[in-house]
Design goal:
By secondary structure, the protein is mainly α. The protein has a single domain, classed as Rhopdopsin 7-helix transmembrane proteins (Up-down Bundle). Helix content is 78%, strand content 0%. The chain is globular and about 50 Å long. The mean pLDDT is 81.
């Protein structure tokens, strides 16, 4: 995992190949690392049978990750082929579907932990809270209520919300071992928050072209977040298959 991250940084900063190959490798980094996470969580899902109670939890986690792969692939294709991506477009639809599926997974997990039903009010309340906070952040920042600003500020809220909820729920099992994959969402949330701020001030492209460290941090942190998710899912698979000794 560290070798992949180091390789990405090397290409990003040094650019050892032609401009076309450097751009292609950088564009493929997010879809590839997201794919690693999706493959790893699929392995966790296949550990269970349909009749097992955790099966729906990991089914929705798996579907959510595959929608993120689709989102990253679509975004990278549009960016590489045209050199620019829309402020809000098809990739965002896939990302939001993925967030919704991950949220459903946590609802099912909550019902297993606390043995309760009728949790759809929690889903509606959570989405309503995210919308309210999203609107408040845009208003407090003195920004326009444009789809771009609303979507950009929604991402870190969703990342942090899912991260905290998943860690809280999975801490009930194995001293928190099941929460390890979702540390990646915390990293992604920090990166999304910085991106929303920079994008709202119209500085991202300027800083990216100038090679400033903040743009490097943002782009690299997405790759790191997916690698953390993938590694966490791998540890989860080893934990389920071989027990705690092999998953350390």
């Amino acid at each position: 995992m560290l070798a992949l991250l180091a390789g990405y940084l090397y290409v990003y900063q040094i650019g050892p190949f032609s401009d076309t190959w450097n751009s292609l490798l950088i564009e493929l980094a997010d879809p590839f690392t997201a794919l690693l996470g999706a493959v790893m969580v699929t392995g966790v899902l296949l550990h269970y049978r349909r009749a097992d109670k955790p099966y729906p939890v990991w089914l929705f986690f798996t579907l959510g990750m595959w929608f993120w792969v689709l989102a990253e692939s679509t975004w990278s294709y549009i960016d590489f082929s045209s050199g620019a991506t829309p402020s809000v477009g098809l990739p965002d639809v896939f990302w939001f579907i993925g967030y919704g599926l991950l949220g459903l997974a946590l609802v099912y997990q909550y019902s297993l932990v606390f043995r309760t039903k009728g949790l759809w009010w929690m889903v509606l309340a959570s989405w309503a809270g995210i919308v309210i906070v999203d609107l408040a952040l845009v208003w407090l920042g003195g920004l326009q209520f444009s789809p771009e600003n609303l979507v950009n500020y929604a991402y870190p809220l969703l990342d942090f919300g899912l991260c905290l909820a998943s860690i809280r729920l999975f801490m009930t099992f194995g001293a928190g071992k099941l929460s390890r994959p979702w540390i990646g969402l915390l990293v992604m949330g920090i990166s999304d928050a910085v991106f929303a701020w920079v994008q709202a001030n119209g500085q991202y492209q300027v800083w990216s072209n100038a090679g400033m460290w903040l743009s490097t941090f943002m782009d690299t942190s997405y790759v790191a977040a997916y690698l953390i998710l993938a590694f966490g899912f791998l540890l989860q698979y080893l934990l389920l298959r071989y027990g705690p000794e092999e998953a350390r």
